[in-house]
Amino acid sequence: MLDQGGLRYRSGAGRWVIAATVLGSGMASVDATVVGIALPTIGREFHASIAQLQWVVNGYTLTLAALLLVGGSVGDRFGRRRVFTIGVIWFTVASAACALAPGSTTLIALRMLQGVGGALLTPGSLAILQASFREEDRGQAIGAWTGLGGVASATGPFIGGWLIAVASWRWIFFINLPIGLAVLLLAIRHVPESRDESAPDRVDVPGALLVMGALAGITYGLIEGPAHGWHGPGPVVALVTGAVAAGLFVVVEARRPAPLLPLGLFRHRQFTVTNAVTFVVYGALGGVLFLLPVVLQVVGGYSPLASGVALLPLTVVMLLSSTSGRLASRFGPRLQMSVGPVVVGCGLALLSRVTTDTSYVTGVLPAVLVFGLGLAITVAPLTATALAAAPVEHAGLASAVNNDIARIGGLIAVAVLPALSGISGSAYLHPGALAAGFTAATKIAGAWCVAGGLLAAVGIRNPETGAGGTPAPEPPDRDYHHCGLDAPPQVIGD
User: Are 115 and 215 within one domain?
Assistant: First the structure.
């Protein structure tokens, strides 16, 4: 049970807490997307291969995804403000180091450290709001966090493109220094401490190490195997090690009294299928969005700034997700979770037009609107279904698992999609080769999304109907908050 605070939404103290959590979580979420705009520039400066650029993105995602559940657990146990503050300091220092990186290998290592900081501060932001505000003001506080965080995510690539244009790609990391300092001061002065007194006495360290080993081994094998060939033992050993670690994780978690991930959640078919759909759809989206800024700049001749604003209309389309959530509550989620991924897949396939039509209005915008509509149809019922399948006392954990699986899907897709589409070595710097590979990548990712829709059609069941023949409504204490492109909405519940 979360602590119940007494802050009022319209009080000065309440606004300072909102500001601290918005700036902190926004700093981490923006960093997950803005780096993509800088990839062509980083690649040219460091003479990096496509595999090295994959690691620049996946190094951050790897540690963030592997430690996200740990960050939430540590915050509940040792104090949410304390862990949030440590995460802010860690993330800010790592950002400064990234800005000074002399080469791609160093940058990759520092990005992994950055992800550790992100995993410490990200779960705490919503938990702090939930614990700090009065029950009657909590919805408004979290709503403000959602709206302002959405603005930050939407403007992040634009700001990143502008910084690259007027200064250097290094400034997309330097900009975190003043933001991090501001968050630190706000957290120290204005954020009340809170903790979960019922949290386990010990953090599940074995589980955390095993999930890290599993993701690291699988990711390394999938990136380095195609990049350097499968003749050496390294990639194969990494894949086997990752698979063994994943198996051991299941065994260890099944036996621990307070596991990092209660495996009983996956005994519910609805929960398992929903997370499988999440993995596929968000994986496809993450893989294509990794390549899109590179294609726009190398093939389409877009500036970093222009490629940074290319996805801004998506934010407007995503506002429709609230309507989608209401429809799913009334008619059940199966239809929307079946149709939505197919629409996303069609939109991703339409992105292949950017290799032949460099006009934004006719080449990029139609695809963005279509896959944005697909996401608007999908995300709210997807998250609601994941939660409805879990016991109410595990609502927050079920949301975190669903959010983490989306990030893991993107991690794996970024590792494997370039190789599947024939993009290797320095091919990303050659417009013809990159255009051919991106066309194949969009079709592969589109097919993944269609498969996700078919999986939902077969595996998802509408809830039992209540009075009037409509599905019973979701419990009122579950609020859905969309946080960005790389993950589905987070959910706050008891």
Answer: no
